[in-house]
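Deliverable D5.2: sample structural annotation.
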Amino acid sequence: PNLYDFSFTLKKHKDRQVLDQQTIASGFRTFETKGDYFYLNGKRYWLRGANHTPHALGINDKALAEKTLDLYHRGNIAVTRSHTIPYSKVWLDAADKMGVGVSYEGIWPWLMIGIGEGSIPDQQLLDVWKDEWLSLLKKYRNHPSLFYWTINNEMNFTHHSDDKARTEKKMGIVSDVVKGMRQIDPTRPICFDSGYNRRSVNDKSDSTFFDRYDDGDIDDGHNYSGWYKGTIFNNFIETPFQKRKTEGRPLISQEWSTGYPNTETGHHTRNYLWQHQNIQTHVGNQGYPFGNPEYSLQNNAFLTSELAEAIRRTHAQLAGMHHFSSLTWFRNVYDAQRVEPYPTYYRMKNSLNPILVSAELFGRHFYAGNRLPVRFCIVNDNVDGETLAPTTLKWEITYSDNRVVSSGAYEMPKVAHYSREWLTPEIVIPTEFKGERLDGKLRIYLVQNGQELARNEYNLLFAKQAWVQSDMKAAMKPILVDLDGKTAPALDHLAVAYASEPNLARALGQKSDLYIISGLATVNALSDEEVALLQDKFKNGGKLLLLNSGDKLLKLFPEYVSGYIPDELETVNIDIPESGVFNDIKLMDLRYFNNDKPGVPLVNSGLVQVLKHAAVESLASGCQHRYARGDDRRAEMLTMKGFPIVSISDQGRLIISEMMTGKSTTDPVMGKLLLNMIEVLSK
């Protein structure tokens, strides 16, 4: 909070003639590692970090530095990282002044990232690198905002690409630099390499390996949960990242990333759109330049904030996070006069509050009148190191414009520092609101002695039972073959009248306006007779709804279906929104289906791949969480992308759906989707 001017004068000994004078602005603080954690001024400290900043775009722009770091400080971003190029004095001065801690990353990023002999530069170049880096330590070590040194970025110690001998050679090179750093500045912790963690290196080393090398003080594992692979929801109830931890060393991530909107239009950066295909998983065609960037921005805000809160709720043995990349949380990030935050910044202001009040929610759509399946969590990471005295947790369900529909409050006990307190509330979703569908919010506040300490809000969908009730004529009575037992309860919930038959032969031998076949994926094999029955029914003008058929579709309809990917996803994207299948369903509704249980809120069981055919319409698409990088991009896309809802109109009418029909009883969007598919086929 306080900076001081330290003035130094150099004089001759005899006549006291002044030879030189200098004033250095600095301050008093300690920042250290002890065991598994960081300590700021003797208090255990969680890194509430986000990086990197636009310093590379204005390395000597004082106005930009101060505006950026002031926004960071006011947005609860307590620590950042000088990624790709080191901070200049201008940026470190601004960090000192505005109150933002810095992980100071070195020069020549990705040095030695390659594999084999050619990945290590000539010794003369390594000497230049070392000398230049150590000179920066001498130049900037008096800046109190500089919390720890990070030697470089992703030198590939932990990717298991090099053999032991090559790894040891690289370890020796960097370890020698660490020893020089400790002589110049023994006051700060050292991160050996951004992306390095000892456990991964230790997998291929002997027991005396780290007696020979100084690998710094901090483990840092880069992680792109929900962006390159996997889903953010894996972090809600599990602690997969802690598998990288070595006891006695703080574990952080300086790249905990959820994507990169650009700083002008809000669309995601082109490399990840066209080359790696990451954003298509989340917003489908809306990620392309012709789409609405608001979908990408809102998705980035959702992923980043939910992941930040999940880590703070569950990973008790970590020492903090740097969320990445924070310069993409702003428009016009390079212009101090025009910079303005994107939605992610505002969401993260709540998620990085030192006192966090957070809601653990899995699915995001709920039926009115039911209990809201939520837990609340209070996390105390306040920098004063003190216990949080008792508080009041207030909640509200509101319209999108924040008008309150219902509310309540709970008295919360004290929360020790660097710990958390959980509450499972009893909240019944209101049934009295305007219309049948409410696109609303859950808002929560933490209040103490009349003062608000923290707040948060979550966009949720609430629907009355009337929204998913069938109004089909009684004469329209489909025949159901429910092989997996999931569709009959769904139809009962939707008030759809139907006749049930135990097998295909019995069902298809009767006349009906619509045949619903559910769960062919659970059958070991279809007989030739069963295949012929289904094909003949379709060719003779029959209407079929095939739910969760899996790879049986390849045998049934080889003239339309070319492949099948058995992968469950938590997001599916509508490709033809004008289809009647999506009546009253919005563009981003097919995600995070609720089933009132903790776990990944999955929406589909697989992806169908289709042949180009005039009769085929791919109504919705899905893309695996992947980081596409192959030379043959089309071939790679065929292994990761497909269509969970397909309509085929040829001699008959067929809708194929790999959506999770069974969730119709707990998720109104799935219920509405199933009802729509039946009504479209019944017309």
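Annotation notes: The chain has a mean pLDDT of 94. Residues 293-314 form the longest helix (22 residues).
The annotation will be released with the project's public dataset once the embargo ends.
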